[in-house]
Design a protein that fits this description.
Length: 474
């Protein structure tokens, strides 16, 4: 019993001492806040922090939300984006959940005071989200309220890795994440020299694109190589751009390929309608107004506008050039080429230029040479391989009993991927859809044979008339 009373007295003394120390600390803190100026307090705390850092093996980097308390800190936003992808919801006791609007996906991030561990190249980095309420100091002229910052702690031996490798890695990763998640936009010409944007939600990807796999892969490789060659283009003294000419019959997937390129690279599209542009000056204003990491598209370039040859007008009499001098009232071929690879081509970086046409032979050779249209892509009729891709897209199958017959017909009949897709979409029942496709291809075959027969009969009649004329002359 005596030992119990002794233990109780010791416990009672300990509680009394702790309470006394806590009260003394609170009193000192109150006196310091009331008597010591804010600036002096900051100096003292900094001194204590410096002494602690000299004896501690852990170093800390602070990433504040605001620069100087006013402007947003880009690194803070990048860290927040990066850590949101690294959070283990099962380990975090408290989480912050947010979204921009009802259609935006939910974003999970760290809550104030929570910690998480990230491992980079074998090194542990401990992150913590700090929120300091400085509203009580606003009367001292600091004007700071709710200072928010991320703190990352690590062993002092890894400070160089943290500053020169880990943080740049976070910035690059966050940039890629934002690029993948942002909504793409397509810009249309408006009022001759202005762009009008709308959101682009085209679902086309290279996986769903109905074209030869080797050609598809060569385009993907070319695009990926292009976006990684910034330093190379600068080294050789050329504008960082790439030109693609898509040519082939209507309905062969040229527009779908452009959308797939945009989705792969996460580039916005600028759809340039040349018939809406009044002059070379307006054309320059439009093209200079494009953002970097974008795709300029001029569809059906052979028929959207009658581009004047560069040679025209050079030897023209000055008296006949009055209207031309009034404001370059026509878009010329030289005006377009000057942006493609002339001086104006250097006004932006990381740009793709795409021309489409149904008739490549109608284009001026000046448009086609390397350096302007670097890669010429023929978009042909539906092949056996593209047919299988389409059936997998629309009916999620890899084989059907009708495949051998359909593939034989496709080999003999010129049919576009758009025509095949239209037939496959008519019915959700795979059997019915594929048999309808067989009937469609057979009807196309009959039409082709009838046309061939008509042409043959016409040619025979012409030959007979020619023979008759020759016999009459004799």
């Amino acid at each position: 019993m005596a030992s119990y009373d002794k233990a109780f007295e010791s416990y009672k003394k300990a509680l009394t001492t702790a309470a006394s120390v806590a009260a003394s600390v609170m009193l000192v803190r109150s006196v310091v806040n009331d008597v010591v100026p804010y600036e002096l307090r900051e100096m003292l705390f900094s001194g204590f922090g410096y002494l602690r850092s000299r004896v501690s093996s852990q170093h800390t980097i602070i990433v504040e939300k605001k620069n100087d308390g006013f402007t947003n800190n880009h690194i803070y936003n990048a860290v927040r984006t990066y850590l949101a992808t690294r959070i283990n919801a099962d380990l975090q006791q408290r989480l912050r959940v947010s979204s921009m609007d009802e259609d935006d996906k939910m974003m999970i991030s760290m809550a104030e005071g929570e910690e998480m561990l990230d491992v980079y190249e074998g090194t542990e980095f401990k992150w913590c989200l700090i929120c300091n309420d400085n509203s009580s100091d606003s009367g001292n002229g600091s004007g700071l309220q709710n200072e928010v910052s991320f703190e990352v702690s690590f062993h002092k031996n890894h400070k160089e890795k943290a500053l020169k490798s880990y943080l740049p890695f976070i910035l690059a990763t966050a940039k890629d994440i934002k690029a993948r998640e942002r909504t793409l936009r397509i810009y249309m010409t408006e009022y001759s020299s202005e762009w009008s944007p709308i959101d682009l939600h085209h679902p086309s990807t290279f996986d769903t694109l109905a074209m030869d796999q080797k050609l598809k892969q060569s385009i993907i490789d070319d695009l990926n190589r292009f976006i990684k060659r910034k330093d190379y283009y600068r080294k050789i003294g050329k504008a960082w751009k790439r030109g693609y000419l898509l040519y082939g019959p209507p309905g062969t997937g040229k527009s779908s390929l452009i959308a797939a390129m945009a989705n792969l690279l996460r580039f916005d599209i600028y759809d340039l309608e040349l018939t809406e542009v009044n002059s070379n000056s307006d054309l320059r204003r439009l093209l200079v107004g494009m953002s970097n990491r974008s795709i300029l598209v001029v569809e059906d370039i052979d028929c959207t506008i009658e581009l004047k040859q560069r040679e025209e007008g050079e030897g023209r009499d000055k008296s006949n050039s009055t209207e031309e001098n009034k404001g370059e009232e026509k878009v010329t071929l030289s005006g377009l080429l000057n942006f493609v690879d002339g001086l104006w081509s250097t006004t932006g970086e990381e740009r793709i230029i795409v021309f489409t046409t149904n008739y490549k032979e109608r284009l001026d050779p000046a448009l086609l040479r390397p350096g302007r249209m670097d890669m010429h892509i023929h978009m042909g009729y539906c092949t056996q391989e593209s047919f299988r891709i389409l059936t997998n897209n629309y009916h999620s199958i890899n084989y059907h009993d009708t495949y051998p017959e359909i593939e034989k017909l496709i080999k003999d009949v010129k049919v576009t991927p758009a025509e095949v897709a239209e037939v496959l979409m008519r019915n959700d029942d795979t059997n019915i859809a594929l048999h309808d496709l067989v009937d469609f291809l057979k009807s196309k075959m009959i039409e082709v044979n009838e046309i061939k027969t008509e042409h043959k009969e016409t040619n025979n009649q012409l030959d007979e008339k020619k023979d008759n004329r020759d016999s009459d002359k004799k």
